[in-house]
Structures are given as structure tokens and as C-alpha cells.
């Protein structure tokens, strides 16, 4: 018999609202700080290098965040980290003008991404505890849509504030967001059973790492293959979006920070639409269709490369680039929700936080490399940016073709099929 338990219970609703507020603060910061660096230094190479450095703590902290999420109260983790982020931005705001700008941005960005690396596993591991299994896929879609909504509003509002008033009001707004989110999260009740242990902290971490690695590499090798493909995809496509789009819009097309904010907002709107598409197409699009979704996302790079190659007017080029970014993010979100649900459905509850965080960390290893490469390429090939875009499209296309065999092997996965069929 079909389970009719509603998705938006009190605790899940509180988490969703808290996520909207927290992620909005995070979104305006992630928009403003890199743009502030790019505007101040006018160096794509430095922009790429700083962005790459910022991700390193997230990569290293995320697996530990998963271990902590499985052993500690997830609500307390989220509350503590939101308060910590508010404190961090407060310190940064009072330090402007007193220390070297690049040093401050590197340290602050690294700290922000490190905190996010510890924060996100707790959120993802909480979803199966707050919703029933038949609501798992739409629950993931809602959290993803929340992220996209915050990402939509953040850059647009951030672009307006930054363009007219500079960095200060953005810092103030983000501090308020993190503080309010932390207070709201205090009232969430997430099921928690304390795990008794006599082992040392080092022994616990070592054991949990070994358990995660054994599960991914030996018990579920399809997860490792999937992670490897996503890492390669992130190297070529995701890194291009992260580094190339700001450079293309603000330096090559000479558009304003407000225009860049709109593009970032459309990226987030694409993510929001991708989450909606997941709910609508849940009965039709399965995990073994994922290579098709990736291929469609890659095709969106072609129009971007063409307008840059033929020197189309700046405004038309901007519109085409922004539209392609929207489509890429919509398709990427549809893909990522499918993958996340697959991992959750394949992983026992007591391993969810560890395995998801380990998977996230592995997929995040490639973007710093890609960001450094793209930063250098856009520095030396700024007048031939279309070459960079076409190379990225070609490399990503090869990866999409290779992924077909991996995703097709998931066609007969019983657990994932059961989760999806519960929605029918």
C-alpha cells in the first residue's frame, strides 16, 4: 500500500527554511568575494589560483564532516557551524584594510569552504532521518531547490548591493543570515542515538575511513566508477563554469557586476528548475539515463563557443552565455539529484554520512586542478576564449560517452528501483 506520509513535517520544514537563510548568506558571499578579488587584481590566473586554494579545506574536511555527522547530533553540528561562520565574517569585516587583501581573501575563503565541507554531510545525512523512504527523492529535490533558490536570489541581490554600495552591506547581510539560521536550527529535532565507544578519536577516524573505502571500492564498486566519472566531468565542465564565466562576462564582454550577478542568478534558477524537473520526470528518467543528461549539458557549450569565436556583439553574447549557463545547471542538477538518491539508496543508514562525504570529497579533488588550468588559459588566451570552451566541450563529450557503460549497468539495481517506484 502506498505511504501517504507528508514530506513537509515540522522538522524537515524548519531545516528547509534554515537552509534557505544560511545558503542565501553563503551565496552572496561566494558571489562577492571572488568578484572583489577579480575587480581588484584584474588577474584571471590569480583568480583561479585563489579559487583552487579555497576548495582544498573543503576536500580535506568533508570526509571528517561525514564521520562526525554519523557519530554526533547533526542539529548541533549545523547550529555550531552557522554561528562559527557568522563570527568568521564579522572578524573578516573588521580586518579589511588592516591586512593584505589577497591573504585575507584566501584565508577567509578557505575557512568558509572548510566549514561548508563539515556542514553539508550533516544536512545530507539528516534527510533520510527526517523523511520516509518514499519521500527520499523529493526530499533531496527540495533541499537542492532550496540551494538553487538561495543561489538565485543571492547573486542578483549581491550584484545590486556590490555594484552600488560595495562589499560592506554584503558582509552585514551574510552575518545576519548565518545568525538567524543558527537560531532557527536549534528547534529542529533530528533522531540521534549516541554511539558508545572506548576507542580513541584517531582509532575511530581510521576505522570509519576504512569502512567507507571498503564500502565504495569493494562492496559497491559502481559507486567508485561513478565518482571517477563525475570527478573528470568536474575537471572540464564545472571548473570552466566556475572560472570561465566570471572572466568571460566581466573582462571579455566588459559587462557590469550587476550583469554578472544576473548570470549567477540564472545559474541558480537553472538549478531550481532542475530540481522541479526531477519531481516531474521521476517516473521517466532513471539513473541509467544519466549519460544522456550529461551529453545534453555538454552540447550547451557549443553556442557559447560560437558567439565568442565570431565576435558577436557583447549583449547578444552575454544573453547566449547566460542562457547556456541556465540550461547546463538545470541538467546538472537533474543529474546530481539522481546520483545522490542512488548513493543514499545503496548505503546503509549508519554509513550514510561517511559514504556521502567521502564521495563528495573525491569528486571535489578535480575542480582545484581545473580552476588553476582554466585561470592560466584565460590569462594567456583571453582573446581566443572560444578555443578553451570547445576543448572543454570535446573533453567532456568523451567522458559522457565513457559514462554510458557505467550508468547502463545500474539498470537492474533493485534498491534504487524500489525507491523510485515508491513514488509511482
Record the SSE blueprint.
Layout lengths: L9 H32 L2 H28 L2 H22 L5 H30 L5 H30 L2 H18 L15 H19 L1 H32 L4 H25 L8 H10 L1 H9 L4 H33 L5 H12 L2 H15 L4 H24 L5 H8 L3
What does this protein structure show overall?
- The protein is mainly α and about 425 residues long.
- It has a single domain (about 10-185, about 200-420), classed as MFS general substrate transporter like domains (Growth Hormone, Chain: A, Up-down Bundle), CATH 1.20.1250.20.
- Helices cover about 80% and strands about 0% of the residues.
- It has helices at about 10-40, 45-70, 75-95, 100-130, 135-165, 170-185, 200-220, 220-250, 255-280, 290-300, 300-310, 315-345, 350-365, 365-380, 385-410, 415-420.
- The longest helix is centred in the last third of the chain and has 33 residues, at about 315-345.
- The radius of gyration is 21 Å and the shape is globular.
- This is MFS transporter.
Amino acid at each position: 500500500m502506498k505511504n501517504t506520509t507528508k514530506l513537509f513535517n515540522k522538522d524537515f520544514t524548519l531545516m528547509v527554511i534554515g537552509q534557505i537563510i544560511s545558503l542565501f548568506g553563503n551565496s552572496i558571499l561566494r558571489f562577492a568575494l571572488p568578484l572583489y578579488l577579480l575587480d581588484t587584481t584584474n588577474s584571471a590566473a590569480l583568480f583561479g589560483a585563489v579559487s583552487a586554494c579555497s576548495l582544498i579545506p573543503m576536500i580535506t574536511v568533508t570526509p571528517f564532516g561525514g564521520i562526525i555527522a554519523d557519530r554526533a547530533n547533526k542539529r548541533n553540528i549545523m547550529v555550531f557551524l552557522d554561528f562559527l561562520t557568522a563570527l568568521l565574517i564579522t572578524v573578516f569585516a573588521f580586518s579589511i584594510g588592516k591586512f593584505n587583501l589577497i591573504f585575507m581573501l584566501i584565508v577567509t575563503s578557505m575557512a568558509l569552504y572548510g566549514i561548508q565541507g563539515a556542514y553539508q554531510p550533516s544536512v545530507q545525512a539528516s534527510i533520510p532521518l527526517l523523511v520516509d523512504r518514499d519521500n527520499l527523492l523529493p526530499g533531496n529535490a527540495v533541499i537542492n531547490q532550496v540551494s538553487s533558490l538561495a543561489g538565485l536570489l543571492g547573486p542578483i541581490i549581491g550584484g545590486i548591493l556590490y555594484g552600488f554600495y560595495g562589499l560592506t552591506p554584503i558582509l552585514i547581510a551574510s552575518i545576519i543570515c548565518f545568525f538567524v539560521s543558527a537560531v532557527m536550527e536549534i528547534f529542529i529535532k533530528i533522531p540521534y542515538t549516541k554511539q558508545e565507544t572506548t576507542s580513541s578519536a584517531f582509532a575511530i577516524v581510521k576505522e570509519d575511513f576504512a569502512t567507507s573505502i571498503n564500502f565504495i571500492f569493494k562492496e559497491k564498486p559502481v559507486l567508485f566508477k561513478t565518482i571517477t566519472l563525475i570527478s573528470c566531468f568536474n575537471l572540464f565542465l564545472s571548473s570552466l563554469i566556475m572560472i570561465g564565466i566570471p572572466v568571460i562576462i566581466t573582462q571579455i564582454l566588459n559587462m557590469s557586476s550587476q550583469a554578472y550577478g544576473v548570470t549567477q542568478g540564472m545559474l541558480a534558477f537553472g538549478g531550481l528548475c532542475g530540481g522541479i524537473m526531477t519531481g516531474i520526470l521521476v517516473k521517466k528518467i532513471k539513473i541509467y539515463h544519466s549519460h544522456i543528461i550529461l551529453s545534453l549539458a555538454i552540447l550547451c557549450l557549443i553556442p557559447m563557443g560560437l558567439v565568442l569565436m565570431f565576435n558577436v556583439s557583447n549583449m547578444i553574447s552575454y544573453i547566449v552565455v547566460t542562457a547556456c549557463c541556465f540550461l547546463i545547471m538545470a541538467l546538472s542538477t537533474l543529474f546530481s539529484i539522481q546520483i545522490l538518491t542512488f548513493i543514499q539508496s545503496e548505503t546503509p543508514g549508519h554509513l550514510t554520512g561517511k559514504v556521502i562525504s567521502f564521495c563528495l570529497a573525491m569528486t571535489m579533488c578535480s575542480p582545484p586542478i581545473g580552476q588553476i588550468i582554466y585561470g592560466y588559459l584565460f590569462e594567456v588566451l583571453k582573446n581566443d576564449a572560444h578555443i578553451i570552451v570547445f576543448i572543454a566541450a570535446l573533453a567532456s563529450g568523451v567522458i559522457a560517452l565513457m559514462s554510458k557503460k557505467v550508468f547502463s549497468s545500474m539498470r537492474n539495481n533493485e534498491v534504487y528501483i524500489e525507491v523510485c517506484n515508491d513514488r509511482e
